[in-house]
Write a structure and sequence with these properties.
mainly beta; 2 helices
């Protein structure tokens, strides 16, 4: 039996941009992606701490070290610049394997979105 579990989490980053005129997705600083073991085009869930919105989208690599967290396309209507979000991805794996799996969890500085 396979179950879906947390694979990666970027905990509490600040939205730096919301770009409505884009085809969709979330742009994330490449350094944050690497630290959280998230790759381009990976499906993620974005949870807005300020308003409770939950969005599923895919990741676009942002400039390394920029602190960029930008919701693009329709998702831009669900957040405001300055909102705090949590970004999570999940993986499907065997139940026994899942028992010992350790997700990559990152706690960046919420003022700069950079790794501490």
């Amino acid at each position: 039996m396979n179950i879906e579990i947390l694979k990666s989490k970027i905990h509490r980053v600040t939205v730096t941009e919301a770009n409505l005129d884009y085809i969709g997705s979330i742009t994330i600083d490449e350094a944050l992606m690497d630290a959280a073991n998230i790759i381009p085009n990976e499906k993620v869930q974005v949870v807005d701490v300020n308003n409770g919105e939950r969005i599923e989208t895919y990741v676009i690599k942002g400039e390394r070290g920029s602190g960029c967290v930008c919701l693009n396309g329709p998702a831009a209507r669900k957040v405001a610049v300055g909102d705090i979000v949590i970004i999570m991805s999940y993986a499907s794996m065997d139940f026994e394997e899942a028992k010992s799996f350790k997700p990559a969890v990152v706690f960046p500085d919420t003022r700069t979105n950079r790794l501490v």
